[in-house]
Amino acid sequence: MELLRVRIERAGYEERDDVVKDVGFALEAGRLVGLIGPNGAGKSTTIKAILGLIKLTKGEVSFCGPEGTYAYIPEHPILYEELTLWEHLELAAAAYGLTEERFRKRAEELLARFRLGDVRDHLTTSFSKGMQQKVMLVIGFLTKPDVYIVDEPFIGLDPKATKELLDTLNEERRRGAAILMSTHVLDTAERICDSFVLLNGGETVAQGDLEHIRRQCGKPGATLFECFHTLT
Description:
The protein has 232 residues and is α/β, with parallel strands linked by helices. The protein has helices at 43-50, 85-96, 100-113, 129-141, 159-175, 186-192, 210-217, 224-231; strands at residues 2-13, 16-28, 32-36, 56-63, 70-73, 147-151, 178-182, 195-200, 203-208.
């Protein structure tokens, strides 16, 4: 079952409206798709176009799941200086219309999982970069949407937090959610992603599972890292 369908003919900005062109793919329930590419390849523009944040976008993006819901976990934490961790979660719950019972149960579970329970009443400005990134993960996982769009989630996370992130992503996949994940951590991407969209120069240069990517770059048995460097 498709939960997200993307067909971007072109997307960009006033100074250049074709930063991304002819990018198309679909996300199916329970699948994790890696959005891969070097810096400047168009990954961030693609994500912004999917989220409807770029005015100059031509194409079609459809969230076609049962609820049509999605969560975005950005690369750089976006937090309010005057709010505590718990107040951030309350704000997110109010925005998504979660019931108090559902919110509290899920929030407590996630705070325990990411080891943030002891700082729930602290201002997030006092947190390290890794802790702030974990706050964004907790907010993103709070609502259990149909689709997750995750941008460079491993930056700043320690090994234990990385494992908790991967475990939570796998739980959500088993629940039936679809995940689009942009990352530079290619060894992890190779291990966890079902398929890949490899961008370079704003265009798709390869797409499919690893075996298909290998065939497209003519390197049987190559790692994702090796394919990446061949194609970009």
